[in-house]
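Archive maintenance. Older records in this collection stored only the sequence; we are now back-filling the structure field for every entry so that each record is complete. The fields below show one back-filled record exactly as it appears after the update. Entries are processed alphabetically, and PAS domain S-box-containing protein is next in the queue.

ARCHIVE ENTRY
Title: PAS domain S-box-containing protein
Organism field: Propionispora vibrioides
Length field: 534
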Amino acid sequence: MRKEMEEEINEIVRELYQVIKGKDVTNGDSACAEKHPEFAKLKNELLLLRSFTDTLAKGDLSSTINLRGYWPGALKALQSNLRHLTWQTGMVASGDYSQRVDFMGDFSIAFNSMVLGLKDAAENERGYIAELEKQQEIIRESERKYKFIAENTGDVIWLLDTDGIIRYISPSVEKLLGFAAVELEGKNSQQTTLTFLWSAFQKTTTDNIQWHSSKVPVIVEEEQLRKDRKVIWLESSISIARDQAGTHIGYIGVTRNISERKRNESLLYQAYERKKRSEFFNKLAVRNDINDLALQEYSGKNKLHIPKDFSLLFFDVDTVPGVSDTADNHYHKQQLVDFLIDILNKKNNTIAWETDIGIVVLSDFASCPNHKERETELAESYVAYIGAYVRNIHVTVGIGNYAEGWSGLANRLNNAKTSVRIGKQVWPERYIYHYENCGIYQVLAPFAVTDGAVDYVHQMIGPLLPHPNLLETLEKILSGLSFKEIGTQLYLHHKTIQLRKQRIEQILNISLDCYETRTALATALQLLKILKLG
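Back-filled structure field:
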């Protein structure tokens, strides 16, 4: 009996050890379990605890156990803590660094330290990201500004690599030159029609070590043909392009249109040359004893052909198209005069300059028997030449008396001016007047500019000035026509002409049959035409 009991106790112990230490245990019935129900219950609970513990060990926190007591309670508490730790880990993963663990000893310390480290790292990362975003926004804003400038500025920004390939050119190139940027980028600058780029590349790729090591840009000016075949002037400011490491990667330039500046520079130069020429020849124009040596010296310095023999023409600009004769428009008239002088000086064998009252032109001309007719034709060709440049302009031309060489220049110029002054008054239907055709007016003209001329006219025919019909009749009588011929011309009866003659004699208290009186009256009438007192 005792031996059976010992064997039974040993069997119970073996089964309990098997539950606690065995690897594979089934919940099959045993003789002891059948014989002792309490043992069977204990064994079953141990197996449940074993299974629950094994599930926890594998990380499965979803299982449940329906047992009570210290050991099941401890396992349930561990399961609950692990579930809470899992939730806390998820919260930490989502960025909640306030989670702390205080139930697992050293693990709690390590976990809490890790969370604090993650918090610091996250804050540092947020700061870094914030700074990075700030810098990126600055870069984006800079790029927006740069793009706005590049697309809207009149200047063209470009980048050539060390082989002369166009790596970038701003969209403004289309506005400046008519080419789209996509047509040019990636092409060799030498193979495009943008000659200014190739010139700039050649200028900067010369073996200039000093410039390559300096930061001073190179300035290149170049004429450029636009896509529409118009030619403009460009100025390029070129600098060395380097990457962040300081390596030379090419050439960067900014190109702008300087056509207006070039035009102004040309106008300034032309104005300077025009003024210098006028000053030189106006000094000569008051002299009759010209030094040929001074002419040769001036000709050599200014590369100007100075003729040995010439025709002297004086141009008086009467009408400026679209400009009224007021003080406010004198500036515009001066612009026209300057333009006329410039185009006249471009004509072969011509020297033109401005005086205080008009334009003087010297044109190569050799002596010939019919020089008056030839000089008149020459003047007509100059008027036509001017008319080809300026429409609706009216000029009168005075031709000075012809003389060989430069001696008597002052007299010739004065005579040309006189012929214009006389011609405009006496022959208003013409526009070219030769001094040698002025006849008696050559003698009267110098006297006409004096106060005595006015006094003389008033003395001789002053009482007739209010009577234009009598002045006209007097001129016809003095010309030697008969009363009948005068009547025919004036559509009057010859007796009416005779009566007018008598009235004239009564008003002036003279006799028209006296030769000296007729000569004096004729002189007064010619002076009147010059003076235009009537």
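Update note: The beta strands are 156-161, 166-169, 218-225, 231-242, 248-257, 310-319, 350-354, 359-364, 394-399, 432-434. The chain has a mean pLDDT of 82.
Entry marked complete.
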